[in-house]
Amino acid sequence: MEVEKVQNIALKFNNNNSNSSRIIEESSIPKEFIRSENEQPAITTVHGTELEVPTIDLSEANEDELVDLISKASEEWGLFQVVNHGIPTQVIQDLQKAGRDFFELPQEEKEVYSKPPPGYKGSEGYSNKLGKNIDTVRPWVDHLFHNIWPPSAINFHFWPKNPPSYRKANEEYAKYLIGVTEKLMKCWSKGLGLEEHKIREGGGGDEMVYLAKINYYPPCPRPELALGVPAHTDLSLLTILVPNDVAGLQVCRDGLWYNVRYIPNALIIHIGDQLEVLSNGKYKAVLHRTTVNKEKTRMSWPVFIEPPPHHEVGPVPELITENNPAKYKTKKFADYKYCKLNKLPQ
């Protein structure tokens, strides 16, 4: 059964649907959004400190230096930001505007994209849930999922026709994103002492799927009690995320939760589970979550770069030795994804 979208619930507390600084009505939120005390951000966040995760200049001419910086950040943090990445600012702004315009459409128009075509079994579409409804506490977020690459994985049924700029903005962003992804994968391979194509090959090569998502976190009357997305690691190989300027991304560091500093025009790179598996644990998937804001809408545009469903992922064979045995099973990505989304053992 489809549950009410969070955007509609938020509007009940803010009738003028404004992102201004007007204080939202002091009311509690429905109990299904209230986190336990060990998750509530007011209690569990280190306040007054922004985490300055590594920021890496992707235009660095010294390739060995770039490999070293990316490898070190991936081992020690599992997350870093990249600047001078080659994606024009206008391309990112167009992507963001198209996403904002979609979520400002009338609800009935957005709901068209929540209905999959007959026989469809994937995770694309407009929704506010992932996998089975196992969690008793709901996240304060609505989202839109759809594949943007390769062409064989794209189903335009899930691409909004409005705003009219939506398709062009996403196709243009995908074109540039592929180059960033290829560069990162070469660096990860070299950082492991492998030939530069090994991580890309281990992740599915030309069949890797770029799954785009728009997260929409409307203003929340009690942000100290709720989370946009609870603590998790991404099941992808890597995730490349564009945020808006409203803070919300938090990373767990030494058991404590910190806000991540916003850098305009930077891309945030998350190490995902599949890269941790391929590297046999050298690169670490980052544990992160998202908080929400009382007065402003937060949005983000992650793209999850994933192996194709049938592709088997395991530690790269060249990394396995008697002194460094395999720490992870080799299994089809579809099986891994099913277990993770439904909270089953791997």
From TrEMBL:
Q: Name one GO biological process term.
A: pigment biosynthetic process
Q: Which GO terms describe its molecular function?
A: dioxygenase activity; L-ascorbic acid binding; metal ion binding
Q: Which cofactor does it need?
A: L-ascorbate
Keyword Oxidoreductase in annotation: yes
In this protein, which residues make up the domain named Fe2OG dioxygenase? 206-307
Q: Which SUPFAM superfamilies does the annotation name? A: Clavaminate synthase-like
InterPro entries on file: DIOX_N, IPNS-like_FE2OG_OXY, IPNS-like_sf, Oxoglu/Fe-dep_dioxygenase_dom, Plant_2OG-oxidoreductases
Name the keywords, alphabetized. Dioxygenase, Flavonoid biosynthesis, Iron, Metal-binding, Oxidoreductase, Vitamin C
Similarity-based family? Belongs to the iron/ascorbate-dependent oxidoreductase family.
Name of this chain's protein: Fe2OG dioxygenase domain-containing protein
Name of the gene = LOC110714529
